Amino acid sequence: IGGNVCTRPCGFCSVPKGKTTALEIDEPERVAEAAERLGLRYVVITSVTRDDLPDGGADHWYDTVRAVRNRTGADVEVLTPDFMGNRAAISRVVEARPDVFNHNTETVPRLYHKVRRNAEYQRTLDLLKQVKDEAPEMPTKSGLMLGLGETREELLEVFSDLREVGCDMLTLGQYLQPTPDQLPVVRFVPPEEFDEIGDLARKLGFAIVASGP
Fold it and tell me: What is the value of pTM for the model shown?
């Protein structure tokens, strides 16, 4: 949701960057209609990052979650940007009562400057902590891409940090280069290594870990 142009120049992503357009007021209802026509029982909503909007699009998020649930009764997972750390915006999305609140960490702190430019590792942790503080019963979730040059030790530190802020679910997948303009793959992680890393994450207490290429 929120258009197809992003305000962040992340190194891994091929979504167009540049001048954004105004939010489409009827988009929440159109998303809900699409979910209904598809017969979906579980809906994941995500968006581009809209740093150009005062609330990062939080009200639009709220309207979309509510529209989908009201029309379909489906469970709704949100996969949000960081809203520049705007606590009121994050609270607004929490108020929509999504069934799962997902915000991706994407990679280890050392690689943020090229993988998640204009994002901050601590801001991601703070967002996940705020959600858990405001809605302790709401499952929180985060994900990382592997194969960008991270080490196992760095991954384990991130897993530990995520558990410290109460993150319940973790997804780990292989980074793939979308086009020649994005960051190259440093390494293809073999399936058995994904299994090992997933087991290490489970030992830290995540309720659910999905780890594979």
Answer: 0.96
Q: In what order do the strands lie in the sheet with 208-211?
A: 42-46, 75-79, 100-102, 140-146, 169-174, 208-211
Residue with tokens 């760095």: 154
**CA distances from residue 74 to 29, 38, 77, 192, 209 in whole angstroms, order as listed:** 14, 11, 10, 35, 23
Q: Specify burial of residue 75 (Cβ count, 10 A radius: 0-12, 13-18, 19+).
A: middle
Amino acid identity, position 185: V
pLDDT at 82 over 90: yes
H or E, element range at 171: strand 169-174
Reported as a single tens digit per residue, the pLDDT across 121-133 is 999 999 999 999 9
Q: Give 153 or 19, the one with higher predicted confidence.
A: 153
Residue with tokens 């540049």: 18
Residues in CB range of 37: below 8 A, 6 or more apart: none
Inform me whether the pLDDT recorded for 18 exceeds 90: no
Helices (H) and strands (E) in the chain, counts: 7, 6
DSSP for residue 109: G
3-state helix, strand, coil in the chain (%, to 5): 40, 15, 45
Contact in structure between 82 and 130 (CB atoms under 8 Å): no
How is residue 91 written in tokens? 């609270």
